[in-house]
Amino acid sequence: MNNKILHTIKQLTKFSTSYKKATLMKQPPIVTATFLEKSSAIDEVPLQEILALAKKLIQVPSFSGDIEKAVEILTLTKEQLTDFTFTPFVSNSFPSILYNNGKDPKHFKIILNAHLDVVPGVESQFRPYEEDGKLYGRGSYDMKAAAAVMIILFNEIADQVTYPLGLQLVTEEEFAESNGTEHQIANGIRSEFAIIGECGSNLRLLNETKGILTVKIITQGHSAHGAYLWRGKNAILKMYDIINTLHKHFPVPDTDTDETTINVAKIATTNNVPNKVPDNCTALLDIRFNKKDRATILSRIKSLLPEDVTLQVDQNRNPHFTDPDNVYIKQLKIIGKEITGKELAIEKTHGGADTTYFSNVGCDAIEFGPIGHGQHHDEEWVDIKSLGVYYQILKKFLLSVK
User: Fold this and answer.
1) CA–CA distance from 306 to each of 15, 146, 249, 303, 311 (Å)?
2) Is residue 38 predicted with pLDDT exceeding 80?
3) Which among 15, 138, 157, 316 is placed 20 to 30 Å from 214, CA to CA?
């Protein structure tokens, strides 16, 4: 184990977990939030406490890959959860934490999962503010406000439930690599059901996600002087023909579709001068594939390429699916209707999430988070009212599980 990983583990574990709740940092007073007409179905919501913690999390510029800030933001969560034990994980220097309620540190009935890393942003985006019922800031929607709800809720009720309950906090989800949730699962963490508080769900139950295949296509040609094109073979033009072929078989959709899609994300060559025929070209493709294409998508792509073209797979994540008749999904729907007066929709989503890693090992999972908009955009926000509704639904659900 290298010194960098050892240092990360020491940083994560230097705070004792034996403190009592009386020693917690002073929190803002609890405010009763009665958002809905069905007041009999609404509990007290610590909304100001949720907002205060969300703002603290947003203020940490925890870009994916910044290990120092990853340790800093995980340390901030430990200051909120001093009454609970946790297991620290480190993979390729990326730290993550799994809190437990003392029932079982590895096998859970329910896991709450949140990522605390964000995509890069400008300095002003890390100064959160409220306006028109919305909380703005980098990570407010993706997904630090949801994480704040989960942290405060875990702190409140984890010792009240009789089953193993976990809180999984990771710091590399935006990289979509194997150093966070997947690393924990590879180390034996299991759960009957996982709730990923990811952005994009908007209080919907997202039970199905497309798979992700990221590939590089590499073409080779022959260089020549730009004035004598017939003496060379242009690798970019060769790539142009390949992209056109792929486009014919996987056209850009005009609207929402369940079909497999291909995004040409980048085309590059090492040639930087105008008077040379480029002898190499690389295209980066982002392929989102459905369940029916899972077994064949890679071979289909290869069949469309000339024999002398190289295909390199950078990422291959399976589609995720949890049966809509899952007992926990049914319970969430019942409770959601009690709280909101409306049915929680069960829907598919196109973007990837850590649900995939759970489904890979036979664990059921969904994406379920508050309402918001603008993930990875300049004007990112989360709806404050929805944070209260989100808290209410999760709390009543967790307390209902036997």
Assistant:
1) 58, 47, 15, 8, 10
2) no
3) 138
**Local structure of residue 230 (DSSP, 8 states):** G
pTM: 0.84
Element (H, E) at 34: none
Beta strand 372-373 pairing with 205-209: unpaired
Burial class from Cβ neighbours inside 10 Å (0-12, 13-18, 19+) for residue 93 reads: middle
What is the rounded distance in angstroms from the CA atom of residue 171 to the CA atom of residue 69? 9
Q: How far apart are CA 140 and CA 371, in angstroms?
A: 11
SS (H, E, C) 257-304: CCCCEEEEEEEECCCCCCCECCCEEEEEEEEEECHHHCCCHHHHHHHC
Kindly state the helix (H) or strand (E) to which residue 311 belongs, with its residue range: strand 310-317
**Angle, in degrees to the nearest 10, between helices 384-400 and 145-157:** 40
The answer to whether the beta carbons of residues 357 and 211 sit under 8 Å apart is: no
Q: Rounded distance, CA 362 to CA 214, Å? A: 24
Q: Which helix (H) or strand (E) holds 50?
A: helix 47-58
Q: How far apart are CA 301 and CA 337, in angstroms?
A: 44
Please report the sign of the dihedral spanned by the C-alpha atoms of residue 246, residue 249, residue 251, residue 257: negative
- C-alpha to C-alpha distance for 96 and 90, rounded to whole angstroms: 6
Q: Each residue of 59-101: pLDDT tens digit?
A: 999 999 999 999 999 999 999 999 999 999 999 999 999 999 9
Is the separation of the CB atoms in 98 and 342 below 8 Å?
Answer: no
Question: Tokens representing 110?
Answer: 């329910």
**Omega cis (within 30) before 143:** yes
